[in-house]
Amino acid sequence: MEYQIHSDGDFEYIEEGEGQVILVLHGLFGALSNFADVINDFKENYKVIVPLLPIYTSPLLSTNVGSLAKFVRSFVEHKKLGKVTLLGNSLGGHIALVYTKRHMEDVEALVLTGSSGLYEDAMGGTFPRRENYEFVKEKVKQTFYDPEVGTKELVDECYEIVNNRTKVLRVIALAKSAIGHNMAKDLPSFNIPSCLIWGKHDTITPPKVAEEFHKLLPDSNLIWIDKCGHAPMMEHPKEFNSKLITWLEERFPKSV
């Protein structure tokens, strides 16, 4: 399903539905379309907003996790969103963590899936080098438990990125930034509800990473999805959405 991409000043984003805001932050190789099922299932009861992060358009010196969190803050203030629930996958989860550390009073809840921020090899090991198409194809398919989820469209997108000098320099800069920006010491102070939805077969941010997040975040729930890799919202969208909806309804019951 195609959704309209809105342009507003320096920002491009998808916005669907009404209600409490779920602000979705995509990963390094993630497109807005990766969250199509999240948008579709949540827009009936929530306002789902997915901003396009300026990963490949920011100046190289400001291409880092902290600057992307600052961009998200500018977007939230521009849209006057107030308190939001943050949902981040991979690098998007890391950005959500940095944002939460800086603006905890404006975060209703934190939802992480395959997030970086703890495991130092989690980011750097995911980036295909500038190689031939088959090499990139294999790397993309390793992201998922079921390699068929790594469609030709996804492979083509990654192949274009890693063979574009301007983009690949930013990939490298973000990888170094993520590795150097470990959040372990910050997480015990996160006094907000946190939901960790993790693929049991994630090889990029393995199950031990989820368990460490769960240990460090004081008010967290860890939910597993079996036969699932690094992007549960893509590989098992219905199960991911069902588990998240259940968690949100339990943690934030709506008065009748």
How would you describe this structure to a colleague?
The structure is a single chain. This protein is α/β, with parallel strands linked by helices. The protein has one domain: Rossmann fold (3-Layer(aba) Sandwich), CATH 3.40.50.1820. Helix content is 41%, strand content 17%. The chain is built from 10 helices and 8 strands. It has an 8-stranded mixed sheet with strand order 1-2-4-3-5-6-7-8, with helices on both faces. Strand 3 (21-25), helix 1 and strand 4 form a beta-alpha-beta unit. Helix 1 (36-42) packs across helix 10. The protein starts with 5 loop residues before the first strand and ends in a 5-residue tail after the last helix. The mean pLDDT is 90.
